[in-house]
Design goal:
This protein is an alpha+beta fold. The chain has a single domain (about 10-195), classed as Class II aldolase/adducin N-terminal domain (L-fuculose-1-phosphate Aldolase, 3-Layer(aba) Sandwich), CATH 3.40.225. The protein has 6 helices and 10 strands. It has helices at about 25-35, 105-115, 125-130, 150-160, 165, 185-195; strands at about 10-15, 40, 50, 50-55, 60-65, 80-85, 90-95, 120-125, 170, 175-180. Strands 1-7-6-5-4-8-10-9 form an 8-stranded mixed beta sheet, with helices on both faces. Strands 2-3 form a two-stranded antiparallel ribbon. Strand 2 and strand 3 (about 50) form a beta hairpin. The longest helix is centred in the C-terminal third of the chain and has 13 residues, at about 150-160. The model has no long low-confidence stretch (mean pLDDT about 95).
Length: about 200
């Protein structure tokens, strides 16, 4: 795996106090489950992978911070709020104690595309990735993670496949990368657990 976890967008990060712990109870619960399964974690090069987010309101969402995949447990110091993004400018604005995940643009586009989606989980799993490749909606293998091109792939998959129904996709150009989503974290998380 090359450059996993590297932020590829321009981030306008406004450092602020941590988010209220009450906002993160379900988020942390599902994040811990994904970590225990090895779906979120750290690779052999000590680079963290995987992230999780929830919609806060129509235009904002809370996402795990950059390089937090390797941490066993997260606190409110490890989440940030994305408040704005611009695909054309490859930029994103976040407010919180930590930089937003490298996959924040992808999450942003999914939330914007379908207002019924309120939770997204991005995991890594080699076995599932190989088994699901081209059997569920799959991004172009030449498109790298964390880029506007990957975010645009989300739109293409919504428009050209049954992604809205399957609620899971494979990132062919992002080794082992899988995204699930749902109306809440239970739906997004259970999509992945059912694939086991």
């Amino acid at each position: 795996m090359k450059e996993t976890g590297v932020i590829k967008f321009n981030c306008n990060w406004i450092k602020s106090e941590p988010l209220a712990p009450a906002l993160l109870i379900d988020l942390n619960s599902w994040r811990n489950r994904m970590f225990e399964l090895g779906f979120i974690g750290v690779n052999d090069e000590d680079i963290g992978y995987g992230n999780i987010s929830i919609r806060l309101n129509e235009n904002e969402f809370i996402i795990s911070g950059s390089a937090t995949g390797k941490l066993t447990n997260l606190t409110n110091e490890h989440y940030t709020k994305v408040v704005e993004y611009d695909l054309e400018k490859n930029s994103l604005s976040a407010v919180g104690p930590i930089l937003a995940s490298s996959e924040s643009l992808t999450h942003a586009v999914i939330y914007e595309y379908d207002r019924s989606i309120n939770a997204i989980i991005h995991i890594h799993n080699t076995t599932m990735w190989n088994q699901l490749m081209n059997k569920v909606p799959t991004t172009n293998k030449n498109v790298e993670y964390g880029t506007p091109a990957m975010a645009m792939e989300m739109i293409r998959l919504f428009d050209e496949s049954d992604l809205r129904k399957q609620k899971v996709l494979v990132m062919a150009g992002h080794q082992d990368g899988i995204i699930s989503f749902g109306k809440d974290l239970n739906e997004a998380g259970n999509q992945l657990l059912n694939l086991l």
